[in-house]
Sequence to fold (437 residues):
Amino acid sequence: MGLTGIQIFKLLPKTNCGECGVPTWLEKCPYVSDEAKEKLAAESAPPIRPLTIGTGEYALKIGGETVMFRHEKTFVNPPGLAAVVSTDEDDASVTGKMDRMKAAQYDRVGLKLRAELFAIKDANGDAGKFTALAKKVSDGTGAGLVLMSDNVDVLKAAASELKDKKPLLYAATAANVDALGAVAKEAECPLAVKGDGSLDSVIALTEKLTEMGLKDLVIDTGTRDLKKAFEEQILIRRAALKDRFRPLGFPTLIMANEMAANLMEESLVAATFVAKYGGVIVLSDFQADSLFPLFLDRLNIYTDPQRPMTAEQGIYPLNNPDESSPVLVTCNFSLTFFIVSGEIESSRVPAWLCVQDTEGLSVMTAWAAGKFSGESVGSFINKCGIKDKVKHKSLVIPGYAAGISGELEEELSGWNITVGPREASQIPKFLKTWKPA
Fold:
């Protein structure tokens, strides 16, 4: 349990002298004891410690979660997806995985959907070969790294060379925790712990490592049975959030590649732990037909349910329109915007798309809420500047908003209002036959 208000008050100096110049700067307060500062800092820290793997464009932040269920508030940091490349693979296999990783990247609702990591696996204890492979993959893709070896010396050599890339070192066990903990501390890299299939073994490892001064830890319980691993993820999250049990307050790693017989089964395992509650999920390979459903699963679960994704209100020229091109209007719900704009672009018909701010609501919901009415759309069209860009007076409204056409004609005197398709997939056909009134 967190500290109560009275407990916090007892740790404070009961003064407001302002000597430091910043009245709430606890760290610089000369009257708060180091013990009290440490206790207050620990209690105010997130129940699941956030950490970052990698640097630059592919830097992956995991952890930092505060709820058991996304509808309670929101999930914060989506899990990273990794594929294993091993030192016993030939160049063609490694290059193929790298190429597939770079090819399987998709733009959707204004976001880039892609995998973030490669897990480099040491198969023979050759530190030079292991480090060279990690460099090749990192330089060739920009992806973050999980460095996996049972040999502490191999990980030490690789961490020394690659510490600026902030790889995740995998994994500290009961047998090597002291030595690998020292490597991670020296390199300032996050470290994964691997239990023996029990949470007690994980707790022993995280407690030992935190005593050594290591904070950026990732938990692999060692379990490879789907049902048990699923139960453990819930227990870990509940212990961290509900009981504020610090030894389990770290993001987790799921070895989906070791829990299934083929990539299709791995994808099902991965989907399970996108929802409950993986931080890093490791697959045996990157294949588009496996990745794309996982990307959408992750996007849906980690989209804030209380804040709809929105596009910016304004006029969007598509396919280089001119003064004779059709004018369409829609809402600013992000999914609607990107589907509609995508269909217009695929039609190759030049058009102007006017996007009205409906507070992130879809056309039907905005219409029902009075935020996509004849009055609001008319006011938007009058003010947005589209009248200066076209010489005709024809406006296409969504088929689901057909009911506003009469009121809209009154708001836009002299304009002809055309009801467009109800389904976005029909937009290309509609535009190819459109003519201004």
Q: What stands out?
A: The two ends are 68 Å apart (CA to CA). The chain has three domains: 5-44, 51-301, 314-432. The longest strand covers residues 80-86.
